[in-house]
Every structure is written in C-alpha cells, then in structure tokens.
Amino acid sequence: MKRFYILVAAAAALVGCSVEGDNMPSINVEAKDKFTLMANIADDTRVTISGDKFTEVSWLAGDAVKLSSEAGASATLYAESAGKSVRFVGEGESKAEVDNYYAVYGRTGSYSLSGSVVTLNYAEQYGGAASAAALLVGKAEGVSAADLSMSFSPANALLRVSVSGVGAISKAEFYALDGSSFATSYSYNIATDVVSHTATGSVIEVNAPSASGFFISLPADLDMPNYVVRLTDANGNVCTKAYSAKTFVKGTTTRVDFEWTTPSVTLGAKSSYSYYLADGNNGANANKFTDPTTIYFSTGVNGESCDSSYANVQDAVIEDLGYEIDGVDYTHSAGQVTWNKANNTFVMNSSVSPSYDKTLGNKTAIKAFIKVNGKKVYSTNTVWLTGLPFNYDFEDGSLSQYAADGWTANGTLNMTDRTLVARTSTLVLQVKRLGVKESGFIVSPKFYMPSNINVQASIHRSAYFLRLGGSQTRTGYVGAVANTTTSNTSSVTYTCSSNSDVLSDHIYGSGEWLTAFTISPSAPYISIDSDEGDFSSTAHHYFVHEAHFRYAQ
Predict the structure, then answer these.
(1) How do residues 305-326 score in pLDDT, each as one tens digit?
(2) Which domain holds residue 322?
(3) Is 361 found in the same domain as 442?
(4) Structure pTM?
(5) Which of the residues 125, 163, 471, 542 has an alpha carbon 20 to 30 A from that of 441?
(6) 144 and 91 within one domain
C-alpha cells in the first residue's frame, strides 16, 4: 500500500462559460432578457460554486475524489485544505511504474469510474446544492504514482434555477414539455473527451432543493426540446414553468428564474345579475332578457363575447381548458371551446348549447377551468340566477296555475266570473257583491339575492266600483317579505279611484314603475296586496292583471 498525493488545481473553472436560460411565457417560445442571480450556497457544502454567473470553483477541506488508472490502480483521496489549489491524500496501490491516472469528483446521482470512463445516472438527485451539482474530472497521463498533478474541469452541464415566491420546496422535476424521453444517463471518457449518452428516462428529479435556488445536473451536451421545471412545495402544491428548447453544453451553466405563481381562472358566463353588477339597471332590464334563467356562455345580450380568462400560468403548461357544467365537461380538446392564447381567454363555441339546472340561486356547478399538472384549476367567481327581471301575466290563468308557478295565495282569492271592460278571467284580491265580502293577498315565488338589491315593481291592476254616489279609492301594496304568508303593507303603494257610481276601469301599463324597495337574502319574496277600504260601495272588485319586477338603482 502506498499513499497517493495529488496536487490539484481548479485551473479550469466548473463551467467554461455561463449562458442564460430561456423562459417560455407561452407555447410560442420566446427568450427572456438576461438576468443575474446570486448563489446561496449552504455552509456544509463541499465544492463551492460562486460568482455572479456560477463559474468560480473552490475546493473545501475534506472534499473527496475517486482515482483510477489504466493499469488498474484505485483509491479515494481527500482534500487537506480549502482553496483553488490543494493537496489530496489517500491510500492505494499503484499497478505500474508509469501509468495513466484519472480522477473524478461528483456527488449527484450514481456514478462509477473504470479506467478513464466515468458513467453517471442523473435521474435522481438530492438537494440541488453546488456540491451536489458539480462533476469534475482530471487526468495525469504517463506519470508515476509519486508524481501526480491534475487540473480538474467540468464533465457535465448545469441548470441553475433561481426561485422566488415559495417558502419551502420538497421536490423539483425536469422533463420535456411534450413528455418525450431524453438522456438521463451518460458516460464520459476522460482520456478522449468523448461523451456518450446511454440510458434514457422521462424525468430528472431533485429532492429537497433550496427554495432560494438550486442546481440540476444534466448530462453533457444534452439536446432538449422545450422543457419544464416543476416544483412541489412543502404542502404538496405544484407550480410548473416551461422554457425554450436548449442544448446543455458540457461545461456551461444555464440560468433560469422561477417565480412561484398560483393560477387563477375567471368565469365569463353571464346572467342578468352579471349585467346589473356591470351597468346597474340600465344593463340588467333590457327587453332582451325574455327568460331570467338564461345564462350566456358564448355571446351576451349585446352581442359581446362572454370570454372566460386565466392568469399566472403559461399557455405551454395548460393541458386543456373549458367549462364544467353540472358535472359535464365542455373542452377545447373536444372542439367545443375556442382558446385565444394571445389574450389568455377562452369561450364556449356558439354552436354549443350546454344544458344546465335552471333552478334559481348561486350556480356553483357552473365553472370555468384550466387543466395543469393533470388537475383542474377552477374559477372562484360564480354566476347567479336571481329570477329578475320578472314578468307574470295573471290573465286567463287559474289559482292552481299560479300555485304551480310558485305563487302563494293567502286569504280568499278569486278569479273574475264575468267579463269586465273587455277583461277576461284574472286574479281578484278583493270582492264585495250580494252580501259577499272576501279579500286576500298573493306572494311571489322566491327570488335569490346575493346581497340587498333595490327592485322596482309595475303592477297592472284595475278596479270595479258600483255605489250610489261619491268617490271610491282602493290602495294597493307591493313590497319584500321574509316568507310566503306575510303581506308588506308599508313599502310601496298605488291607488285605483272612481268618482262615479258606475263601472270604472283603471288599467296601468308598463310605463308606471313604482318607487324602488329593497329585496334581500332575508326577505326574498314580494307580496301584492290591497286595503279593504270601507266596503261602502254596493259592489266592487279589485283586479291584478300583470306583475313586473326589475332591478333598480
């Protein structure tokens, strides 16, 4: 056994040059501007890589290198001190007076050294520190064991990832954007400077990398298509960034930045309430809203596009996008959704008519989404069906039909049993005739309000009076109530009057909108009622023909 002494100089830096990485903001790959990063090297690392371009290498005391020779010598040597030129010492047995010696420093992945050939597998890496990333090789040919001197140089390529926006990272992954295989293992002949790519894989994984930045060791001269770096944080959340195609040349460091972002999606589908939020009653009460349960997925009432949008994610890493409506997907990949990458928007094709539950309320089952990393990211905003604007015709109906449509009758309600001034059968709130005295009120179906909203009403009504003289007035009431058995007689009033002792007809059209009142989540119904008056007339009827409710300022 003999002690080997190698005087080692880091004369060749870890990287011959440093190159900028190409960030990929979209599927249309574009190079980013250059940037400078500062390394954060842990105190317990061995070889240090420093400088603003990560090109400066120094040894630390205790660093170990593997030594082999053409004749079969083998040893492990350790640095006695720190610096760029240090002495490595170890024990082994020389096999020839004059031999060709080869040495390698490396801690990333698994590697073996046989003669002049070092073989490495980079599929799994740990920590991403400089000490773990560097692969350095040296040679001394035609020398004796007592006269070893080597200058080390890099035999791999490095990707330096600078990270921001995340506290801790459990794992980093490097893979081709299109999922294709690439060389994760290779061999390097130190004597001939020949690189040979061997086994292939689909991903290189780095466990527990630093959240401030880390290295990924790559096979020398690795020719990659558009590639991806995917990080998983300590809570299992994932963020993915894509970068431009690259050849990772031996002895170079490619630098990229990685800002952790959380993708977001905004649902662009619209209801009448959407227009109310955007433009008050001006937009929400258009005559175009013939059905208050309509949701517009493609084109709105004004001909505008109902685009959904996304942010904080690259087009390149979006696997699909579209809508999930009551559990059914409508997607770009299926040809149902148009994707505008230039604007980060997408919209349902006009030829698609999605089916959805038209029950009023917060339609949480209607969502826009993007698919990233095999998972859907959903929109957080929702579309509401409030039931407004609301229009109802009581003529030619029946009490049973009103009930089927969601109205609740209270007291004694009737239908006209005779034609009055060309009016056929309609709702009667009040009746006095031939000793009969009946009255009641009616309460609307439930409306669904995300918050307090002002509502205007237009009640088309008429009255019939028959008395011996004098005038007769009836007051009507309309307002919000908390339940279907309560009448609001204080919100808004309207009157029908007659100064005649003969038939009188007062019909109020859609041009008469009453002063607004508030409908709310705690008072989501609207009652229609009338006062009983003095009932001094010989006979009277109080009729309701139509009810209209709309958003108000």
Answers:
(1) 999 999 999 999 999 999 999 9
(2) 264-385
(3) no
(4) 0.81
(5) 471
(6) yes
